[in-house]
Design goal:
Number of helices: 21
Protein name: Glycosylphosphatidylinositol:protein transamidase, GAA1 component
GO cellular component, one term: GPI-anchor transamidase complex
Structural class: alpha/beta
Distance between the termini: 48 Å
Transmembrane segments: 20-41, 364-384, 430-452, 458-481, 556-575, 595-615
Largest sheet: 8 strands, mixed
Organism: Letharia lupina
Strand order of the largest sheet: 2-3-5-4-6-9-7-8
InterPro entries: Gaa1
Shape: elongated
Strand content: 15-25%
Radius of gyration: 30 Å
């Protein structure tokens, strides 16, 4: 048997060690936040670059323009003439335009139901078969009839139709080109890409009569302006925080700003002077969008299928015309046409802070991991603390029977009694803490179900009622538990330990999938680490259960950072309508497969509930 130094054994049993974990947890949180704030600096971020050599962005001469301006104007006039007509007339006219360009059109109907609202429409598309290809790969050009703001995408649709006619004249294509006009910017693209990959529900979404090969890339045109534009706003956020390959974004930026001299912006940062504040603001805006996980444009529906996609949105009032935007799309398609295999060289996990500056996952991931690991540190400390016996008692106050099982220690003229070595680890009563943690995590399905299946009109009142119930629910639950099974100090420690362990495990796993959501939930949950009396190493009831003053302060902090209150605060700060926000979440769940609300109600809210029970 290996020899263990008595000094190490004494250090292991030193109760002062259990006072260290709260400070380590606080240090992890502090370092994680500071780490995030350092990312915009030049020392921690990098210039963007093209990893896939075959793309050759901006290396070809673009010819879109001249007489194509007249074609575009004619298509735009026909689209304006369709305003106010029924959907059948619109889709038939679009089909006629495709046929006039010697392209075979196809149509697809769809209908979704979410939050008491029906989302129905029809997609019209045509496939330009590659003269030099074998129909095994395809590139998609998308223009939604209405954009994300609900405005008619008149110039975008007209430009897509003009490009379809223009592309038909060229024989250089090695990949099929699919021109897709969707009924809207959210349900339409999702219905089409689901049906393309045979993942649709046939009762709501019709199958596609025409298909091509594997989709290699998607470019969406969004130009609802009736005048010249100033710059291109590139939207790249996908559903559930997924992102397209960075090479596609870099290709668009290189062509727009380098080859064509068009300004590029992202995350609605219209003016960017490359200062630290603007870099940080751009990065945080991207993190908020990624954390929410909602669809930011028609391109978002393609990314979950590992199809890299971006949206080019014309913004501002400048001197760039639609022909410049068309040349940008032409050059991007020429680069995508060069691809020998699917995008894989560059990053899929990154944070952009400017059009030409980013940080990769290896640089930013420690920030969220440090926040997540603070819960694990406290969970381990509470677990060790739960197995320790109570503090030594004075010998004169103990019965003789108990003294025979204890070790008598003389110190400073006082006789104290401590447990013998074989009794220093108490048996942990795990059933109640484990059952309570598991039950509350399953209980999160109730608000998840209610807010997903309620109608748009009843969602605000349902959420208001839930917010008020949430104020008293921890107290009611704590009272009910104590009435049937009184919580011992060990129960209290084990309950907090297991809850923090589960929370830390979930957040650490989530950080590799959706860094921003993991970081935000972790920061909002940090008070859970310090509920109770974390700075004490004693397991006596007076040291485990919080004092009245600490109980009131902890309750106030937890209530202010509860999931419902945070949702109210976010809607107030952004000026968003609560009903619309909840309806968007319900739509995202039923149509796009959004799982942000699963993390909120089945991970964050149960952990918050357990924290509320512990301070009552």
């Amino acid at each position: 048997m290996a020899f263990i130094s008595p000094t190490i054994l004494a250090l292991r049993r030193d109760p002062r060690l259990l006072k260290l974990p709260p400070y380590l947890s606080a240090l992890c949180i502090f370092i994680g936040v500071v780490w995030l704030c350092l990312l915009p600096l030049n020392e921690y971020s990098r210039h963007t670059y093209i990893s896939e050599n075959a793309l050759l962005p901006g290396q070809v001469h673009t010819y879109f323009g001249g007489s194509e301006q007249n074609v575009f104007n004619a298509y735009k006039y026909e689209i304006q003439a369709l305003v106010g007509k029924d959907q059948k007339a619109i889709y038939e006219k679009l089909s006629d335009i495709f046929e006039s360009a010697n392209l075979r059109p196809a149509r697809q109907k769809y209908e979704y139901h979410a939050a008491g609202t029906t989302y129905s429409g029809e997609n019209v598309y045509a496939i330009l078969h590659a003269p030099r290809g074998d129909a095994t790969e395809a590139i998609v050009l998308v223009a939604a009839w209405t954009n994300m703001d609900g405005d008619l995408n008149q110039s975008g649709v007209a430009l897509a139709l003009a490009l379809a006619r223009y592309f038909k004249r060229w024989s250089l294509w090695s990949k099929d080109i699919i021109i897709l006009i969707t009924g809207d910017s959210r349900a339409g693209p999702q219905a089409w890409v689901d049906a393309y990959h045979d993942e649709h529900t046939s009762f709501f979404v019709a199958p596609l009569p025409l298909k091509s090969g594997a989709l290699q890339g998607v470019v969406v045109i969004d130009n609802a302006l009736d005048h010249r534009f100033e710059s291109l706003h590139i939207v790249y956020d996908g559903i559930n925080g997924q992102l397209p390959n960075l090479d596609l974004f870099n290709t668009a930026v290189s062509i727009a700003s380098g080859q064509l001299g068009i300004g590029v912006s992202l995350q609605r940062m219209w003016k960017h002077n490359d200062s630290y504040q603007e870099r940080l603001q751009t990065m945080l805006r991207g993190m908020v969008s990624q954390g929410l996980g909602y669809s930011s444009g028609p391109h978002s529906s393609f990314i979950p299928y590992h199809v890299d996609a971006i949206t080019l949105q014309a913004v501002g009032d400048g001197w760039q015309d639609e022909m410049a935007m068309g040349r940008c799309v032409e050059s991007i398609f020429r680069s995508l046409n060069n691809l020998l295999e699917h995008f894989h060289q560059s990053f899929f996990f990154y944070l952009l802070m400017q059009a030409d500056r980013f940080v990769s996952i290896g640089t930013y991931l420690p920030s969220a991991m440090l926040v997540a690991v603070n819960f694990t540190i406290m969970a381990i400390a509470l677990w060790i603390r739960s197995g320790r016996p109570p503090a030594p008692k004075v010998a004169s106050t103990m019965p003789e029977k108990e003294k025979t099982e204890m070790e008598i220690v003389q110190k400073d003229g006082m006789t104290a009694i401590t447990p013998k070595e074989n009794l220093t680890i108490l048996e942990r009563q795990l059933f109640l803490p484990v059952a309570l943690v598991v039950s509350l995590h399953f209980l999160g399905v109730i608000p998840l179900y209610v807010f997903i299946n309620s109608s748009r009109n009843t969602l605000p009142s349902c959420f208001l009622l839930f917010t008020f119930l949430n104020l008293i629910l921890p107290t009611v639950l704590a009272t009910s538990i104590r009435r049937h099974t009184p919580l011992t100090p060990q129960h209290h420690l084990l309950l907090q330990s297991i809850s923090l362990l589960v929370l830390g495990m979930f957040l650490a796993t989530l950080a590799t999938l959706n860094f921003s959501l993991s970081l935000f939930i972790g920061l909002l949950s940090t008070p859970l680490t310090f509920t109770g009396n974390p700075f004490s190493s004693s397991v006596d009831a007076k040291d485990v259960f919080p004092s009245n003053a600490r109980k009131y302060i902890s309750t106030l902090v937890l209530q202010l950072l509860s999931p419902p209150v945070v949702v109210w605060a976010v809607c107030y700060i952004w000026g968003a309508d609560l009903g619309e926000t909840l309806a968007e979440a319900a739509f995202g769940w039923k149509v796009n497969g959004l799982w942000t609300q699963v993390v909120v109600w089945c991970v964050w809210w149960p952990a918050w509930m357990i924290g509320g029970v512990l301070v009552n």
